[in-house]
Amino acid sequence: MATDLKTYLFDLRGYIQLEQALTSEEVADLNTRLDEIPKLEPGEWFGNVHAHNYGDGNSGLNLQQIYEGGEPFERLIDHPSWIEKIKFFVGGEGTFDYHHGPLFIDENFANFREPGEAIGLHSGGYPPNLRNQYRYHGGRFMCGQVNILLALTDIGPGDGGTMLIPGSHKSNFKHPHYDRHRMSKDATVEGTEGAVETQMKAGDALLFVDGISHGSAKRTNPGTRRIIVYRYGPSWGNFRHGYQPSQELLDRLTPERRRIVSPQQPLLKPPKDTD
Question: 68, 169, 190, 268: which could form a disulfide with 134 (CB 3.0–4.6 Å)?
Answer without folding.
Answer: 169
